[in-house]
What we know:
- The chain has one domain (5-97).
- It has helices spanning 15-21, 29-57, 64-97.
- The radius of gyration is 26 Å and the shape is elongated.
- It is 69% helix and 0% strand.
Amino acid sequence: MELELSMLPNIQIDLAMVQDTAVGVFGLGLIGILAIFLLVLLIFGFWMWMLVDCLLNEPSEGNDKLIWAAVIFFGNWPGAMLYYFLRRPQRIRDCEMFPLD
């Protein structure tokens, strides 16, 4: 059996439908996509800041530095938030109580 052109369904492309599809991811448009990109960039920057802060400023005594670095690295932004709100203020208070000078 040969396939003839007349047997294929008549496909019409509506220009409005194509333009609606070009609006972007979930209908957000260019502004929405840029806003999501900016948010992702900020979250990544915060995650990187907490990881570097932990690796540079956490005392090397015991396993605290290694454990917090693993929590931040594998926990991604929730791990960075835990470090920022739980451990970082405690470390800063400890440094103020026992200055190196």
